[in-house]
């Protein structure tokens, strides 16, 4: 290797500069050390039952840095330096902070929040809360967030896994819905089955609490001007009520005279009017397959949305979405098949700075597997990525695929037999 010649100003003959050089290098090394990032890991549990708390929020107060626990209550968060204070929160538990001074694994417990039974209030109170939340979404609908979203979908037929998809999108969203996506990476595993859900993610990408494009005079959404006309509401309690307010838990159901059927629960921050969480069951779900002999019967779609704890902000970006479809697939002359499709989407690395990515809105003509196959598979993208970490139950699904000769990018290819030719 050729010797590297230092500029004359740093040569050994210039002794007056030697001390300055040493000092400069020392300062640079100290700066780099101070900027070194630290990865924190841990588990969040219920203080009394010790059960893990999935989808609990973990954040650095006063910053946009945060994450959410997975289905096993586990989290990974990269911080700039130590010590650091972390804020832990979950809708049904009391918020708590923890001062972290080392990178040792954290075992965090949260006490269950008190649900205060509502005082005698006028019957219109829950309607007022829902209306205020709707007006709040109307005012802030144009607020846009840019980030990433991890989507996982598992299909089961008669309780046997038939399909697994994992996708990372670059995502554009607002306080009510996903506004557009572009595929960053995807992978799948599947086995031969009577049906596959080739565009199930469209329900996640199209559903929203509020859509300004809809005719507000005929909208059947809960968050609309027609809530009193279309819904029955009941205030069940106020979670974590204190001097600053609390989160109202409101059950809703469409009125008997409304043909569209839906029921569920919405949680609204009394002080900020922010929708904190939303859960709806739609028993009147309709769908179809490309086989005219096949029909869906007894279909039920469950939708859940949660938003980042916004503090005193009036709105916040999406934190997670869950979709769960149960139905019977019928075909003349054949035994009905029990179908279950479940998915969840976790949003992360969100900011308000626009990007130049070509976000596309969801279309009913989208085909998830076609999009995944069209994108070159990158194993390094998925390696050691805490966001996409599977639970033990999901690892069992992959193992089941391997045992039944499934195909796809997630399934290990069998080793060649001794003496077999390989290309």
Structural overview:
- This is Carboxypeptidase-like regulatory domain-containing protein.
- Pfam families: CarbopepD_reg_2.
- This protein is α+β, with helices and mostly antiparallel strands.
- It has two domains: 38-113, Immunoglobulin-like (Sandwich); 125-403, no CATH class.
- The protein has helices spanning 18-34, 125-140, 201-206, 227-230, 368-374, 379-382, 392-403; strands at 38-46, 57-59, 66-68, 74-79, 84-90, 93-100, 106-110, 115-116, 145-157, 160-174, 177-190, 231-242, 245-254, 263-269, 275-282, 295-307, 318-330, 337-351.
- β17 and β18 (337-351) form a beta hairpin.
Give the count of structural domains.
2
Q: Determine the N-to-C terminus distance.
A: 39 Å
What is the string of SSEs from the N terminus onward? HEEEEEEEEHEEEHHEEEEEEEHHH
- The strand order across the widest sheet is 8-12-13-14-15-16-17-18-9-10-11
Beta-strand portion reads: 35-45%
Give the helix tally: 7
The number of strands is 18
Residue share in helix: 10-25%
What structural class is derived from the secondary structure elements? alpha+beta
Largest sheet: 11 strands, antiparallel
C-alpha geometry? globular
The radius of gyration over CA amounts to: 26 Å
Determine the mean pLDDT.
84
Poorly predicted runs are 1-17, 21-35, 419-423
Protein name: Carboxypeptidase-like regulatory domain-containing protein
Organism: Hymenobacter luteus
InterPro entries: CarboxyPept-like_regulatory
Pfam family, one: CarbopepD_reg_2
């Amino acid at each position: 290797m050729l010797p590297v010649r230092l500029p004359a100003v740093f040569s050994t003959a210039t002794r007056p500069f030697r001390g300055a050089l040493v000092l400069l290098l020392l300062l640079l090394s100290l700066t780099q050390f101070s900027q070194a990032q630290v990865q924190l890991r841990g588990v969040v549990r219920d203080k009394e039952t010790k059960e893990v708390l999935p989808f609990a929020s973990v954040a650095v107060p006063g910053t946009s840095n945060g994450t959410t626990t997975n289905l096993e209550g586990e989290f990974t968060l990269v911080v700039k330096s130590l010590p650091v204070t972390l804020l832990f929160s979950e809708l049904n538990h009391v918020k708590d902070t923890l001062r972290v001074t080392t990178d040792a694994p954290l075992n965090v417990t949260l006490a269950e929040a008190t649900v205060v039974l509502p005082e005698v209030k006028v019957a219109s109170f829950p309607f007022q809360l829902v209306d205020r939340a709707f007006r709040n979404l109307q005012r802030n609908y144009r607020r846009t967030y840019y980030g990433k979203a991890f989507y996982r979908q598992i299909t089961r037929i008669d309780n046997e896994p038939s399909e697994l998809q994992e996708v990372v999108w670059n995502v554009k969203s607002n306080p009510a819905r996903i506004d557009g996506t572009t595929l960053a990476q995807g992978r799948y595993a599947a086995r031969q089955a009577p049906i596959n859900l080739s565009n199930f993610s469209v329900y996640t990408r199209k559903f929203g609490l509020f859509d300004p494009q809809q005719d507000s005079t005929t909208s059947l959404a809960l968050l609309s001007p027609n809530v009193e006309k279309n819904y029955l509401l009941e205030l069940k309690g106020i979670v974590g009520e204190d001097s600053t307010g609390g989160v109202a838990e409101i059950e809703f159901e469409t009125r008997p005279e409304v043909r569209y059927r839906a029921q569920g629960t919405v949680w609204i921050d009394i002080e900020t009017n922010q929708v904190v969480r939303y859960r709806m069951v739609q028993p009147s779900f309709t769908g179809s397959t490309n086989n005219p002999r096949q029909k869906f019967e007894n279909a039920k779609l469950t939708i859940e949305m949660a938003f980042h704890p916004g503090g005193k902000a009036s709105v916040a970006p999406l934190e997670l979405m869950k979709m769960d479809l149960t139905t019977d697939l019928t075909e003349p002359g054949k035994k009905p098949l029990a179908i279950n499709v479940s998915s969840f989407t976790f949003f992360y690395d969100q900011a308000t700075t626009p990007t130049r990515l070509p976000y596309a809105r969801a279309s009913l003509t989208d085909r998830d597997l076609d999009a995944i196959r069209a994108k070159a598979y990158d194993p390094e993208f998925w390696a050691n990525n805490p966001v996409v970490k599977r639970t033990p139950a999901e690892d069992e699904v992959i193992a089941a695929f391997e045992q039944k000769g499934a195909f796809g990018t997630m399934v290990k290819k069998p080793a060649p037999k001794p003496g077999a030719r390989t290309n």
